[in-house]
Amino acid sequence: MLQNDSRKVKKGDTFIAIKGIKNDGHDYIDEAIKNGAAKVIVEYGNYENMIKVENTSDYLHSYVKEHYLPIIKKLKIIGITGTNGKTTTAYLIYQALNKLNINCAYIGTIGFYINKIHKKNINTTPDILTLYNMLLTCVFENIEYVVMEVSSQGLSYNRVDGIEFDYAIFTNLTMDHLDFHKTMKNYLNAKLKLFQKLKTNGIGIINSDSNYCDYFKTGKFLTYGTSGDYKISDIDYNINKSSFKINDYLYHMQLIGDYNVYNMCTVIIILKLLKIEDLKIRNIVETLENAPGRMEKIRYKDNVIIIDYAHTPDATLKILKTLQNKGTIITVIGCGGNRQKDKRKIMGFIAVHNSNYVIFTSDNPRNENAKNIIKDMLKDVDTSNYEIEINRKKAIIKGIQKLTKNDILLILGKGHEDYQEIKGVRYHFNDKKIVLKNI
After folding, report:
1. Would the pTM count as exceeding 0.70?
2. Fewest C-beta atoms under 10 Å: which of 213, 235, 333, 389?
3. Are the C-beta atoms of residues 439 and 300 closer than 8 Å to each other?
4. Residue 371's CB: how many other CB atoms inside 10 A?
């Protein structure tokens, strides 16, 4: 078997040394041989049983397309791209298809879900070899559909090279990842690559309310939003559930908020394209649940604690607006280190102006000082309804202690993550577990 991770090498495998962003696979050849690699593919060096090539990454892409692609072509693949909503949308589609006895796997931020087995992912869109191996597993496990999140970085690094999509969904495009893409134009162009990978008869599904929607209107497509082929209207919700209409047909769901109606609308479109009858779709929609760490609710006395992955200005504003007038809002929030700095002050401003009280804390500071990150978040803050508690565990506990009656504690930024990255080390940390241990 071909491996690009020396730790996964078993006796008889072939190890290919890939030059990555941070690491060079050539540095791990000895480890791969020690673990049993029978052959190594390299760009330089001198090893027994080696194949020397000019570019190992190009070789890998050619290899998987030649040997794996013919096998996985039978899969029907749904790709989802956008700044926000990818995980929820993908997870909802995954649930819906399986509830209809259509075997579906999910690949994305929260992992690889297949036949009730869940494995973690390092990246939203895995490296090309990992991804192709996942798709091969799907074929061997008799999966019919695969729904996957396709990130802008995954598209930029050609991680989905060779894969053709039956459906491509565009959720939205707002400021994020500009530390990587530098400009919104570059960010947009990366997202557009997914739609260029549609099969000849593939269908694009586009959010017509996005300012960028027209860029995605190529080939065969459908639109959804306040206008378009699937028109959303009459949204109504409380802290527990939502109702809405699509083309004047009424639906109810457990998820709340306008943005989740948009996410659910894409599920409805996919099911309609698969010729599922309206009443069955309506019944399925009522049963679908949030993805882990996405608007995940925990009841505490007469209060609600909500854990959410929101880590962009747009996502933060949307979830806070969703909860307006539903109770006193206490928000625990931070920003990641070594990422786009100019969004920090925006998120700080949004937090204090849309919450009753804010506790600023650390997120994944990575190689930055958490104090400096919070300082950046406070640059445009012109209110006094906040405090600083750098220790995230203590910040969450403080938030819980401030709850009285019918209040909402909103813990943002990490969602499903089970670690906190500090100075290059990932320490075990999970917002939900901290909450459950302290209520």
Report:
1. yes
2. 235
3. yes
4. 12
